Amino acid sequence: MPIRIQADLPAIEVLEAENIFVMTYDRAAGQDIRPLKIALLNLMPTKTETETQLLRLLGNTPLQVDVELLHPASHVSKNTSSSYLQKYYKTFDQVKGQRFDGLIITGAPVEKLPFEEVDYWTEMCRIMDWTRTNVYSTLYICWGAQAGLYYHYGIEKHPLHEKLSGIYNHQVLNPYHPLMRGFDDNYFAPHSRYTTVYLEDVKAHRELLPLAVSDIAGLHIVAEKGGRRIFVTGHAEYDRDTLAKEYFRDVNRGLEPKIPYNYFPGGDPAKTPAFTWRSNAHLLVSNWLNYYVYQQVPYDFIGEEHA
């Protein structure tokens, strides 16, 4: 089934070329279907790339999904024009009176800063507090996951001695958990971050369930009991070449980055990386949509706007 987005969003051309069913609002208005209403708070500097990556995953399920793109009003984007944001995105204040079946909060390149020093942290706190009543299930990604664990449970992030970048093997801790259904015992996923969250800190909270870990990359997936909050410390949504783009960007900046782990064939940046995490990424998002949004949200959860 399709994702519903604005008719001229640049991501449409890419998604349709991949045979992902995209439906415009005008066409969807003629159907008598209650679609899932999903908001995407995009904190990444590469807005178009990130929205395309996540829309691709949201569009590969049997469910019809109505997507609302959000950006923080308290941050001035250096990489995305204000005209693009005004045309395709809304701010929290514009949607705070609505309810959403699900919300995705992306990562952001601000890991080295204390949470309170991020220029949109106050707004982030307002949004995360709002999710308690206006969002049925929230999926937090990378820095977003660290921010959610810190805000809701007081779990700190910790600096790594060097950037964690690459494709890492993970072990499923609970194969019978709905979020992990269909996963192999071991699977690959990308990470790209400078900080981490300790497994023992998560285990100290009885309401949190660690679901997958890596011997090298550490904790990967955590779920709150009941599934109202899901935390993923990596970037399952990344394209084949996203880590390569980050690596060559840092090379051009003179940062002398390490070659991403287990990514380029033979460790040669001139070679095209194998796409070894795509199926796991689709499975993760479809499980979240199915088991923790579609099957659990009350039918009348989406109603009239309210204060």
The biggest sheet amounts to:
11 strands, mixed
Measured distance between first and last alpha carbons: 32 Å
Number of strands: 11
CATH hierarchy: architecture = 3-Layer(aba) Sandwich
CATH topology: Rossmann fold
Major sheet strand order: 2-1-4-3-5-6-11-10-9-7-8
CATH homologous superfamily classification: Class I glutamine amidotransferase (GATase) domain
Figure out the total of helices: 10
Low-confidence stretches: none
N-to-C SSE string, H for helix and E for strand: EHEHEHEHHEHEHEEHEEEHH
Helix content: 25-40%
* Mean pLDDT score: 91
Tally of individual domains: 1
Shape: globular
Rg is 19 Å
CATH class: Alpha Beta
* Overall SS class: alpha/beta
Q: Strand share of the residues?
A: 15-25%
What does this structure look like?
With 307 residues, this protein is an alpha/beta fold. The chain has one domain (3-159, 193-238, 277-294): Class I glutamine amidotransferase (GATase) domain (Rossmann fold). 30% of the residues lie in helices and 24% in strands. It has ten helices and eleven strands. It has an eleven-stranded mixed beta sheet with strand order 2-1-4-3-5-6-11-10-9-7-8, with helices on both faces. The model has no long low-confidence stretch (mean pLDDT 91). Pathway: Amino-acid biosynthesis; L-methionine biosynthesis via de novo pathway; O-acetyl-L-homoserine from L-homoserine: step 1/1. It catalyses: L-homoserine + acetyl-CoA = O-acetyl-L-homoserine + CoA. Pfam families: HTS.
